[in-house]
Each structure stands twice: as C-alpha cells, then as structure tokens.
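Good morning,

Attaching, inline, the backbone tokens for the sequence recovery test we're adding to the shared suite. The designed sequence is right after.
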C-alpha cells in the first residue's frame, strides 16, 4: 500500500497532537497556579520517561550505539530539558494565549537555522516571512498589558517561551539524522531518560515540598493530562505524522494550537484576547505562510536540472 494511502493517519495524528498541545497552555497555566514550574516540568519528564520505557518493553528491541547515546545526551538538553523547562517557566509568567501563539513560530525559526547550518537558500518569500514572524513575536515579547486575574502578558515569560521554541528547532536541525535512525519510542525513551537525569537535581526540592495528600482531584487530573496527554501521547502522535506527511504540511498544523488555546483560555477566564494578540497572530501566521510557500535548495536544484 502506498504511503499516500496512509496520509489520513498522519493528518489525524497531527491534528490530535496540536489540539492536545493547544489545550496544554490553559490547563498548564491553571496547574501552575497551584504548583511550581520546576515541579510540573519534573512530573512531565519523569512521567513520560517511565511511560516510554514501559512501552518499549512491548516492542522489538533496538540497539543504540555508545556514540549515539552520547549524542542523545546533547539532544535531550536541547529537545527536552531546555525546551520544556523554559516553556513551563515562561507559561507560569505569561498568558496561555501568548504562549500558544509563540508556539506557531517554529517554521520561521527552523528556516533561519536551515539557512545557517544547512545552507538553504534565502528567497524573497523567506525574507518577508522572517520579517513578519519576528514582528509578531516581538509584539508579544514586548507586550506587558495586564489582563484579568493578573494572568497578563509578560516580557520575560514570552521571551522564555520563544527561547523554548528556538531550543527545540536547534534540536531538530542538529539531530535530524539521529532522530531518523531509530523508532519514535526508542528516541523518546532515551531523550526523556537523560532529560530527567539533568532536571531532577534542579527540581528535587520542589517535588518534595508538594503536599500530595492535600492535592485536590482537579489538580491531579491536570497533572496527569500534562504528563500523559501533552507529553507522552502528543509525542507519539507527532512522530507518526512526521513519518507520513511533508514538513510543510506538518508546520501548518501549528495553527491549531493558538486557536484551541485562545478559545479555552478565554472560556476559563485565564486570558483576554486583545488587539496585540490579534496583531501577533496575523503577523506570525502570514510569516509562516510565506516561509512554507518558499522553495528549498533541493527544489531549486531540481528546477535548474530540468531547465
């Protein structure tokens, strides 16, 4: 059966992953009102690590070379530790709407990194896309308008959320070969293992300080959602989509996150969708559109060969 016959599975997986991540912004923000950012990040890493290692017991064993295990250490720092650590801490400081809008910037960031590290050509469409995307990100990062309940925009929070996206994009760019060499479960179990080892000393005091017996059920289910929904399941869905669909299509599904997060955040009273947020959405979405419509080096080389 052709790969195209399975494309509906890729679309379904990507849509599910981005809806889950969109919900994670308001649910995570609500959770951070009761728990510290370090504790939530530690739960996320340790819980996903345990889930992926347990799942791997029921799948064919993949041998990972010693050299690749060393590479996984650095990949874990960029793809998990810095990415999730900065995003959760940034979310604790800013609004879930701003945080979710910033998660739409990876296509632009990846394009810049591809030009720097992979020598991808810079076309006029990419230049326009970069300018629009950066403008949208700066609107949010510089915005400090207070919203209802003290959950407004924060310069530091928005900057940390943006740096989290940069960290993840660097991870995807530098370790693309490593990721494609092994199955999604094998990659994830080693990434989360090393990430947990790195982050546990930082978060140990926060984990011990939590009064678990006094935690209400509503807080428990939010933590479980963040760990098994927004981390374990979403990573499985995303890697499935990456195997079945083209990168340009994958990047388009990022648009679902701010839409879901905005609707839920406003409904929960966690944020207000203001003029600055609307302007940022337009700039970032337009920027991503121009970037994804531009041609890669392989496409340009193919056109030259045909000519």
């Amino acid at each position: 059966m052709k790969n195209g016959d399975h494309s509906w599975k890729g679309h379904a997986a990507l849509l599910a992953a981005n809806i889950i991540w969109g919900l994670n912004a308001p649910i995570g923000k609500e959770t951070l009102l009761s728990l510290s950012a370090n504790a939530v990040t530690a739960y996320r890493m340790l819980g996903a690590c345990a889930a992926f290692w347990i799942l791997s017991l029921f799948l064919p064993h993949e041998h990972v070379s010693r050299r690749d295990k060393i590479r996984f250490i650095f990949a874990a720092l960029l793809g998990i530790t810095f990415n999730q650590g900065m995003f959760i801490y940034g979310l604790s400081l800013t609004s879930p709407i701003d945080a979710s809008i910033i998660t739409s910037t990876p296509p632009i960031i990846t394009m810049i990194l591809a030009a720097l590290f992979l020598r991808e050509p810079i076309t006029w469409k990419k230049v326009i896309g970069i300018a629009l995307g950066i403008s949208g990100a700066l609107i949010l990062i510089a915005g400090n308008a207070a919203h209802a309940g003290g959950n407004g925009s924060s310069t530091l929070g928005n900057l940390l959320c943006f740096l989290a996206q940069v960290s993840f994009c660097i991870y995807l760019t530098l370790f693309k070969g490593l990721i494609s060499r092994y199955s999604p479960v094998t990659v994830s179990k080693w990434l989360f293992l090393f990430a947990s080892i790195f982050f546990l000393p930082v978060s140990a005091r926060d984990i011990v300080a939590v009064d678990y017996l006094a935690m209400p059920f509503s807080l428990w289910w939010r933590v479980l959602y963040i760990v098994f929904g927004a981390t374990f399941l979403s990573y499985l869905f995303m890697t499935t989509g990456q195997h079945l669909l083209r990168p340009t299509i994958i990047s388009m599904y990022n648009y679902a996150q701010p839409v879901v997060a905005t609707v839920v955040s406003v409904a929960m009273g966690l944020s207000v969708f203001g003029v600055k947020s609307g302007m940022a959405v337009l700039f970032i979405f337009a920027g991503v559109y121009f970037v994804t419509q531009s041609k890669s080096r392989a496409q340009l080389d193919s056109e030259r060969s045909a000519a």
